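Reading a protein record of the kind used here takes only a little practice. The integers have meaning only within a learned vocabulary of local backbone shapes. With that in mind, consider the following protein and its fold in token form:
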Amino acid sequence: DIFFDLVIWSLLFIEAELVPGLIMPQEMKDFSATLWSYLETYPIKNASAYEEGADDDDFIEAAYLATHIAYIPTRNHRFPIYVEDSPALYLFHRENLYPVMEMGELDLIAEFVDSLRQYGCTAENDLQVRDGTRYMLGLFDKAGGSWLNHLEEGEVGPDDYDLIHKAW
């Protein structure tokens, strides 16, 4: 939770740099790069390391952390990320996409596909992106062509977060 919060703060500081007229202290500007350097050594275990695999709550938290870490060097999708930026982060996405697809949480699958797309992978040039995209399109079709109709276990309907995030 602490590291995820730090990543979110980093992403907020990145966005704050785009606000016209906002003068940010240098420490805020340096925060994302400092956090990125630290996270290069932060171990994120694959689903296979957990007793329940991709269904393990600790893995799910780690997977969301990994997808959000990838937004730091891209400045929230404004620039590409390269394998050389963090080979371990890239391998984490590669090694865990299919376990995440088997687990079936739409949001996490979408974030994995999104992360791989940041590396320049597309449905045309990458089997995993194609498989993940087709999986999501299958869910979209089953939901009658609306992400808001897609409900996961325990959901009774879209909340305010879903109104934007599911479609995004």
Notes: The chain has eight helices and no strands.
